[in-house]
Amino acid sequence: MATYHDGAEIDRSTHSINYTEFTVKKKTEGMLILAKIGLILLYIGIVAVIWALASWWLGCISLLLSIITWYFTWPFVNIEYEYTTASGDLQFTKIYGGKKRSPILEKKIKDMELIAPYTSEYTSKFPSIAKTYDCRKSVKQTEDVYFAVFDEKGEKHQILFQCTNKALKIFTKYNKENTVTVDTLHY
Fold first, then answer.
1. Is 112 helix (H, G, I), strand (E, B) or coil?
2. Is 26 helix (H, G, I), strand (E, B) or coil?
3. What tens digit of pLDDT does each residue of 142-162 get?
4. How many domains does the chain have?
5. Cα–Cα distance between 107 and 84 in angstroms, integer?
6. Residue 166 maps to which CATH number?
7. Do residues 164 and 55 lie in contact, with contact meaning Cβ atoms separated by under 8 Å?
8. Could you write out the DSSP letters of every residue in 86-146?
9. Count of alpha carbons within 13 Å of 115, Cβ hemisphere only?
10. Which residues constitute the domain of residue 169?
């Protein structure tokens, strides 16, 4: 049933104890640094080559085209990951440039075989993982990192993410027997 406040519909699920969302910005490292450098060199290179080989007005047009190209390509090197829990569902989304949203994964929390801290103590229970979805801010991040293992077409898959206290409570509510809790989360 919809609830209205000052004429606007309110989605009560976002105010529920069973709802949480958390967003992390992907750190610029490794291949992302190379991609950013490559794009900058491409933008500058196009303008410089046309300006040098042709006339100034073609250089101005190429500058305009570089700016347009930058507008459409730069968001793909500014990445955020967001996860949302709502009514027993866990959804991961990749966000490009703060605008374009691309769903990564959506699963029922109750279907997770294990939700635990990403340590060798727990990861060793699953020696053969077919696919890993990495939604951490950095590949070097270890603080508050959890992993969830699930079955997809007979293969084990896992997702790595930064866990929060509220999300951990929700995981425990919907899948208590397969959730490992800790008291040292920072969020």
1. coil
2. coil
3. 788 999 999 999 999 999 999
4. 1
5. 11
6. 2.30.29
7. no
8. ETTEEEEEEEETTTEEEEEEEEEGGG-SEEEESSHHHHTT----SEEEE-SS-TT--TTEE
9. 27
10. 3-29+77-178
Q: What phi-psi label fits residue 126: left (phi over 0), alpha (psi between -120 and 50 degrees) or beta?
A: beta
- pTM comes to 0.73
Element (H, E) at 175: none
How many other C-beta atoms lie within 10 A of the C-beta of residue 47?
Answer: 20
User: Cα(24)–Cα(144) distance, rounded to whole angstroms?
Assistant: 12
| pLDDT tens digit sequence for 9-20 | 444 455 567 888
d(CA 127, CA 48) in angstroms, rounded, equals 52
Beta-sheet pairing, 145-152 with 114-117: antiparallel
Residues β-bridged to residue 90: 85, 107
Is the distance from CB of 95 to CB of 23 less than 8 angstroms? yes
